[in-house]
Amino acid sequence: MREVYVAAYERDSGRWLEVIAPVVVSPDAAPLPDGRGWIGAGSGFAVYASLRERYGAALSECDGAIVPSASAVGTLSLPRFAAGEGVPAHDAAPFYVRHRVALTIAERAAGLRQ
């Protein structure tokens, strides 16, 4: 879809703080974090040279081969879980950054485009 998932987090006293909320945008519209010393990770940097160029001097490192894993998410969640921020399994729900990935049949028939 020629879009990238972008979010930025910084570590503060053992916790991760959201600096840029998760968003799906074109590489040229990716929001920029303030300052320097950010680490870029994910396949968007491998696929879109323009994304790496856009972040330019803000990045101290960049690795387009890094991908998320369930074990990494689990490890990152441990401090929050230990602080009582977990929820019962029946209350857990996914967080969808892109809410729609396709048009309905009616939307396509009406000539709408994504």
What does this structure look like?
This protein starts with a strand and ends in a 5-residue tail after the last helix. It is an alpha+beta fold. It has one domain (4-88). It has a two-stranded antiparallel ribbon with strand order 1-2. The chain is built from four helices and four strands; from the N terminus they run E-E-E-H-H-E-H-H.
Which strand-content bin applies to the residues? 25-35%
Rg: 17 Å
> In whole angstroms, how far apart are the ends?
9 Å
Oligomer: single chain
| Largest β-sheet summary | 2 strands, antiparallel
How would you describe the shape? flat
Give the key terms.
114 residues; alpha+beta; two-stranded antiparallel ribbon; two-stranded parallel sheet; 4 helices
Task: Describe, in short, the structure shown.
The chain has 114 residues and is of the alpha+beta class.
Topology:
Blueprint lengths: L3 E9 L2 E11 L12 E4 L1 H5 L1 H7 L3 E5 L6 H13 L22 H5 L5
Parallel strand pairs: 3-4
Antiparallel strand pairs: 1-2
